[in-house]
Specification:
alpha+beta, Gyrase A, domain 2, two-stranded antiparallel ribbon, 6 strands, rod-shaped
Length: 217
């Protein structure tokens, strides 16, 4: 029988396979290293972009904070200025407001057939009592007050026949109240006057049609 020694051939084959495996392993390591380097570079680039965006955002936030601080300072200055203006207006009202109201009140009296006897001002409320020779004079007086910038919500409380007489002519006593605007109003809304009773007990519109003159004693 013929015997053939195959050991050298097997060793060469194993050596070749080992070299191929080593080469493949080295190539794999190189590829992995390249991927790691590329990924690291990409991450570093993205990190740099993120840092740049964060820095821009921080700058914007700082600008907004500065603007908000300026706005707050402006609001504080505005509030202080408004407080001073309100104080000045209040002082002006206290000094010249009542004088202007009394002057306006005297100017609004429609004729010498009506006059005021008693006047009281409490806050922005004015109470007025007086006498007149005719009901119509009271209605005219209230219309004049409604057209004024210093009075609103005119309310007629009463119109009654007075026991006294002026030169033999009977006199009517009236009373009304109204809101007072010492600095004047910006608007002039029409305020309907309320009704009051005539001396005979019937209702008569205060600022409406003319009423009959009181009879002489």
């Amino acid at each position: 029988m013929i015997k053939i020694n195959l050991l050298p051939v097997k060793e060469d084959k194993l050596i070749a396979e080992a070299k191929g495996f080593i080469a493949l392993f080295v190539i794999s390591i190189v590829v992995v290293v390249v991927l790691i380097v590329f990924n690291s570079s990409l991450l570093a680039e993205r990190e740099a972009e993120s840092r740049a965006r964060i820095a821009e955002a921080d700058e914007e936030i700082a600008k907004l904070k500065s603007i908000m601080g300026e706005i707050k300072n402006l609001k504080d200055k505005k509030a202080k200025l408004q407080e001073k203006m309100d104080m000045i207006i209040k002082l002006q009202e206290q000094n010249i407001g009542p004088v202007r109201v009394l002057d306006e009140l005297s100017l609004k009296l429609p004729s010498n057939k009506i006059w005021a006897d008693k006047l009281t001002i409490k806050g922005n409320k004015l109470e007025l009592d007086g006498k007149t020779l005719e009901n119509q004079e009271v209605a005219n007086f209230m219309r004049q007050l409604e057209n004024s910038l210093f009075f609103s919500n005119i309310n007629l409380k009463k119109v009654t026949k007075d026991k006294a007489a002026v030169q033999g002519v009977s006199v009517l006593t009236y009373g009304l109240n109204t809101n007072v605007h010492f600095a004047g109003r910006n608007e002039q809304p029409a305020q309907p006057a309320q009704q009051a009773k005539q001396p005979d007990g019937q209702q008569q519109p205060a600022a409406g049609n003319a009423a009959a003159k009181p009879s002489a004693n």
